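Why this split exists: single-chain examples teach little about how molecules sit against one another. For that reason, every record in the complexes split bundles all components of an assembly together and asks for one structure covering all of them. Below is a record exactly as it appears in the raw files.
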Amino acid sequence: MTETPVISCKNVWKIFGPDPAAYIKQMPQDHSFDAIRADGYIAGVKDVSIEVGRGEMLVIMGLSGSGKSTLVRCFSRLHDITGGTIEVEGQDIMQLSEKELIELRRNKMGMVFQSFGLLPHRTVLENVAFPLEMRGQDKHERRARAMEVVKLVGLEGREEYFPRELSGGQQQRVGIARSLAIEPDIWFLDEPFSALDPLIRREMQDEFLRLQDMLGKTIVFITHDFDEALRLADRIAIMKDGAVEQCDTPDQIVLHPATEYVRKFTEEIDKARVVHAGVLASPDNKGEGEPVDAGATIQELAKLLVHDTRDVIPVAKQGQVIGGMERQAGLTILLETG
Amino acid sequence: MADATEVHGNISPGFGGLSRSKAALVLVAVAVALTLLRYAGLLPDALFRVPEAMVPPFAIWLDAIFNFVKDDLGLLAVTRTLTEGLEWILDATANLLFGKRRWPNLGPIPWTSIAAVAAVIGYYLGGWRMALLAGGTFVWTALIGQWKIAMETMSVLVVAAPLAFVIGLTLGILAWRKPWVNRALKPILSVLQTLPFFTYLLPAVIFFKVGPTAGAVATTIYAIPPMILMTTLGLQKVSPEVVEAGEMSGCSRWQLLRHVYIPSARTEILVGVNQVIMLCLAMVVLTAFIGMPGLGAKLLAMMGSFKLGRSFEIGVTIVLLAVTLDRMSKAWVVKQPEHFEKGTPWWKRHLTLVLAVGLFVFFIIVSQFVEVAATIGRKQNFSQGKEIDTLIKGFLNIDAVKAVTGFLRAFLNVQVLIPFRNFLLSIPTPALILLVTAFALWLGGRKQAILAAVFFSLVALSGWWDRSVITLYSVISAVALAMIIGLPLGIWAARTERWSKRILLVCDTAQTFPSFVYLIPAIMLFGITDIAVIFSILIFAMVPLTRYTIEGLRSVPEEMTEAADMSGATRMQKLINVQLPLALPTMAVGFNQAIMFAFFMVIIAAFIGTQDLGQELQRTLAGTDLGKNFVLGICVSLMALTFDLTILKWASDQKKALGLGD
């Protein structure tokens, strides 16, 4: 990545307790999560360094209590961090005054919440227009813009409804619309689909991917559902006890789990559905014959892997052969879990 | 407040390593010994009662402080200025509602207009039934010939309630925002809530002139505490995600409060509004004691001259008003906004408003031509005062009724109440303090015990010990009698869903009645006697007892009663071993409320003629004896607080120990 990352955080700490600022100063290096807890503090975020590039979708994944929601709240400074730095587009957000912070949120950030966070006394349209109202846009303009976003998320005709009159999925569409109303550059989604039942969740994920294809925002997406993470992510950061265990592409996480904890997570996953041909290609031996597409998953190539007789199959990206994949390696992944 | 180390009641240490119950027993033993010594004539008088010479002149000190604040600090000048402003508003409402000759000189508004608007609002909030109740109440008030006095009461209410709402809301927000405000307010609020209402009245009179202004001020102050509490509670309960959504929408602090917090706390704030209205009504009726004209004053006068029929009619009016205001404001709490389809015309969106304004104007025009629609004259009303009077008196003269009330009067009074009172009075002061301390230690804990000892010692030092004991005696005997009737009633009603609902509805309704109303049946049945006092406290205190008994029993988790059934428990075994123990913490809350209600009522009942603190308090209202008024008020408050702190602590400890949560 050559251009400056949209979000860049270095050695970020967030500690909860009676006097975190004093505590972190005297805390010994490499103090473990449990040691900190024994001192009466909770390490919500523990020494996290992570970057999010423009247009990238980073999925933060972990069980409940792992610190993923806390981390994303540090990005938007809903929480003030205890140590380290967070830069948003090159600007240290901890240095912002209250006014500048409000400006940042009014113009650059949008956030979607797990239990929607809708205002119960406002109609769909008024909820969506809320951020616009806060920044003082005039009534006609903001209604027109809100209407646009309401259409975008497919709630046309319901704009006069109150939140309690909508289903969970529809309510979250309102939440999504609201977060998009100001056309943010950075889009935070905190377990947006966890409160929905599985069928609706699937549908909302598709809808979300459609929106993302259209809008191309920089996204930080939180989930505790590994399947969801694999489905959506450009990169996944797996968190445990406030720390990031591994941050990598889905392929790499599945193929090369960095820690025991991550390995356990990936154990049940059907790797053939996650790993792409491109990842297995090595430029040393490009093989011969008809190439396969780098973006195809091993599962999609199953038939070919079984029937082909070549030892090395060429892999092409946009028509250009980038390397060769050993057929045996592909077959191993295919047969490993099933 | 809960001390983490004292959660598990019976194991925590009391004094000097003794367990709490043992320490309490020791205290009781000392108290008994002291009492026996007294009976044997061995206890010196100085240990029996605090000697006159040792009583510090609290009243004089307090007077000095008041005078300093009033004159030297110039508070009186401030309040007199406020008075002018308030008087101007009150005059305006008085003009509109009953035609007092003041600005804006438009009134009085015809009763038909007001009744029609009330009905429309009722319809908006709760459909036809509410419309009928609201409209019917005002029609009744007019037809029975009480329109003017009811409007005198309302003219103060419509000023005091919004005032209490605004002040309460503001203080509530401050207390939620700033922890130190909260810490400062908490003890003040708990004292305010136990302070007898007579104590609100005299300062109001001195600082704000006699009449409606003082009435409005006392009413406002009385109604503020619950509004503060509900506001703070509501704001604390707003879901963090909604707040974060607001912050991420770029709300400034003020926008966050205005657009996110307050609307999200709507339910609690409206519950606060309901309480404000009900407390205002209860208090505004009582301002009769400082000469505020209105329903209360009329009722006071009628009861004083034993005109039972008229008293009864006024009582009905007050009750109807109370029920209407309560039901309407509660309906407002649960009223959810409904959406309108796009393109709904303006008048349809605001149908209620259009209807209300339309009918209002319509009846104003009608009343220009039809006299009766404007005001109902003296001879035109349907009051049946005299007839009801004869009816009631006739009923009371039936031999059987006479025998029952006579027996109750004789038996209860002579056999139970007077001996009990004399017994309490015969206990030496230190012994009684020890007994109360032991009670607080046993139920609450060390902190509660120390507070109990301090509070009751202060009462002893106030120089009003005997009257305080008599007050305590009325409270204890009335609550005990209320338990004998209320608990079985609650237990019985809790057995079936249907009866639970019915009795709870009765309790809910009864709880909205201004306390003053409870005197009416008491005086009807027992005349002006001690028994009437006890009786009025009894029915007043029975309401929370029955109500919380039902609620406690009904909220026992079903799997526990099912487990008892499957263990082969009989109904009685189930009740005693499973349901009652689990319901007890909730019932204790009801018991506590009963005691608080009793302390409140015993002061009002002083009107009937008692020898307790209330009587003295009422006497101070005639003068300007602020110091004495406060000493008496604080005595009542301290005694009530002792019970309040102890019982609530026990209830919350028990709930925690049983894992029931709050």
